[in-house]
């Protein structure tokens, strides 16, 4: 279940109310920072831009690949743990504008998480520590710690326990490599 706060609107669809929701100057600033970060090859610089100008909580050694698109209106609602990889062209949203309402929700991505390319993460989602999200996944519900998920709609492919058992059986990455 996604944890979002709902804000009803009257009259035109909620996107017409956008600048009542978030200041125009903030959106312009965020747009510039996000576009700079999307194209820079310097991982440390991306994290600095996100922490300094977008007020995001980003852990050490976290890597945002080329073209990652963060929520342009509410990036401060996104937090990412340490040593996490966010794959190429992933989109992370903290808002959604609908016809009769808009919704806001925190996105919490744990430590040592691997998110594959072209993934979309919806508002109000928590991805637990050590989780793996397959490329092209629509993350529309929470991901348990250590789980391997994928698809559209997203489903759990392996739980943490099942994934650990598979790794232990592997002749190259067996038990001695896990510990």
UniProtKB/TrEMBL annotation:
UniProt entry tagged with the keyword Metal-binding: no
Top-level taxon: Bacteria
Record keywords, A-Z: Acyltransferase, Transferase
Gene Ontology MF annotations: acyltransferase activity
Record carries keyword Manganese: no
InterPro entries: Hexapep, Trans_hexapeptide_repeat, Trimer_LpxA-like_sf
Protein name, per record: Acyltransferase
């Amino acid at each position: 279940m996604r944890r979002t706060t709902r804000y009803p609107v009257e009259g035109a669809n909620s996107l017409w109310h956008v600048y009542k929701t978030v200041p125009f100057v903030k959106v312009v600033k965020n747009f510039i920072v996000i576009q700079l970060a999307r194209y820079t090859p310097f991982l440390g610089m991306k994290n600095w831009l996100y922490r300094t100008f977008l007020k995001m909580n980003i852990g050490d050694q976290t890597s945002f690949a080329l073209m990652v698109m963060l929520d342009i209106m509410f990036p401060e609602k996104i937090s990412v743990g340490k040593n996490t990889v966010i794959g190429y062209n992933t989109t992370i949203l903290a808002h959604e504008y609908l016809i009769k309402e808009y919704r806001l929700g925190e996105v919490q991505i744990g430590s040592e998480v691997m998110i594959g390319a072209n993934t979309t993460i919806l508002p109000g989602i928590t991805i637990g520590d050590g989780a793996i999200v397959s490329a092209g996944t629509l993350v529309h519900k929470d991901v348990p710690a250590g789980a391997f998920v994928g698809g559209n709609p997203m489903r759990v492919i392996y739980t943490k326990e099942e994934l650990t058992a598979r790794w232990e059986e592997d002749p190259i990455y067996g038990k001695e490599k896990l510990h």
